[in-house]
Structure formats: C-alpha cells, structure tokens
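tool=predict chain=A
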Amino acid sequence: MSEPVLLVEKKDQIATLTLNRPRSMNALSAELRTAISTAFDDLMDDQSIGVVIITGAGRAFCAGLDLKELSAGNKGLDKLGEEKNDDRNLATPFEKFDRPVIGAINGAAITGGFELALACDILIASTEAGFADTHARVGILPGSALSQKLSRYIGISRAKEVSLTGNFIDADQALAWHLVNRIVEPDELLPTCRALAKDILSCPQDMIRKYKRLIDEGYAMTYADSLKLERKTNREHIKSVTPESIAKRRENILERGRKQKR
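tool=predict ok
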C-alpha cells in the first residue's frame, strides 16, 4: 500500500501538513492538490486546531505543478484549468482558512510551490531553502496570486527580475528581500515553527482570527480604505470588551513579560 501524498499530524492544537512526494520533490499532482484542499476543509471544521504548519518531505518544499503529469495528455491540463477557474484554486484553501498558517520552507519552493509558500501567513526558511518562479519558462501564467503577491512583498522591480528570469533566490537573498521572516538550520526548522505556533496559541484565539482577517482585508485595500476598515472594526469590537476582561488579560501579559525576562 502506497503512502498518502499528504501527511497530517495534529498535536497540541497545531496541525502539521507534510507534502509527501519526496521522490518527485513534492510536485503538486492532482491527487496532492486535492489532498491539500480536503485537509484545509477538515481543519476548518476542527476547532481544536489553532495554527497550521505546512512543510515538505525530503529535500524540497515543493517543486510546483507535476509537469510529468501535465505533459502526459490534455486530461491533466483540463483539470488544472478547472481548478484555476473555481474555488479549487491552489491558494483558495489558505485564503478561506481563518487561522494562521506557517510555511516551514525546508528546501526548494518552485513556481507552484512558490505560490504555495506565498499563500502562507508567515514563512520560516531553512538554510537549504530557495525560491524560483519558472512560469515563463514552462509556458504557463500563474493563477494562484504569485504575479500579484510577490511584487507586494519584495517590490515590483525585484519581482520582475525573479519572474522574468526564472532565477533562484537562495535563503539569504529571501531574507534580505523580506520574503521570509527568518532563516534557521534544517534541524531547527520545525521546532522554530512550533515555538512560534505556541506563541500564537498563547493569545486569545478569537482575537487571532479577527486580527488575521483585519490584516488580510486591509492589505487588499488602499491605505485610506484600510484605515476606515480598522476604525470600523475597532468600534464594533470595543462594544464587547469589559473592564474585567481587560484586567484579566493585563495580568496574563505581565506574567508572560516576567517569564520572558528571566
């Protein structure tokens, strides 16, 4: 019996999704794309999970779409076209998910794998990580937000360099260009992501979900409109805040500060 193409581990309110096609550099076959979408649907219904970590098995994070599968006939391309036109798009499960997703980029994230990484909320990279957009070389235009997100993350000129050359960005360059939050040694990648997840879980989870939505919705707006959104959201939320809840949370913040200083 073959192993599943996606491994799902749930522990301590953290779900870890591992792309599990290491011999194919975790290329996104139709089966794997479906498995990712199904996993996020299941996690959306699992209220015990507060943070998701996604990573890859073996030496790659994800080599992008399975070009061998796509080149075998029109069936694969037809299925891909359907996915690009509806809510089965690769980025959609991440966009719909209401809790933080941390990308643990253990190796190469190429084209569709790059899009998968950009769909995450936070990126932590191994020293072995690298990023490349080879859409132009393959002859397929991106359909999961890479052409729009990358320029917003690293600047339009750098994004054009990356996408119009297909050249790799190594981990150090990704950090310098603010594409990833930090770089760690390979054996520290998952422990670092789990520690970050636990920090997120230490906050009230209703606030984490509201704050993530506020950031994402505001980021898609003009600055002026995003300020209006923030103020509107603040006014609506403040109605549910009580002096007692502030006092309780203040004590928790002070206690956490004391522990961090030790």
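The first strand starts at residue 6 and ends at 11. The chain has two domains: 6-201, 221-261.
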